Amino acid sequence: MTTKTRNIINWSLAGIVGFIFTGSAISKFIGAEAAEMAQGIGLDKSTFMFLGVVELLSVVLFLIPRTGVLGTLLLAAYMGGAIATHLEHGEPLMFPIAVQAFVWIVAVLRFPELTQRILDKRTT
To answer: Less Cβ crowding at N or C end of the chain, within 10 Å?
Structure first.
């Protein structure tokens, strides 16, 4: 696979991650259904909007190559919180787990240094 092809695939996958999280964040700002959902899990509107800001900030950091690893960690932490919230309220876990796995797959493809650090592979 050529470098150009790899870059196109990486950016396409990163765009999908960006689309998922940006859509979720925007729904926290303007969605009436999202406000009802927030109340259902015990959050007020301002806290839910704050989560939307955190989500947007994390995805922006993820999409910028220089800060992508930090963005990956923030998105992973965010989705960990989403999984915990789903567990606490007895909601289905499949979607947040799938998103979490997809974020990590894209991150490993985009940032080879992550794989090196996780698997403790040292280049000499």
So the answer is: C
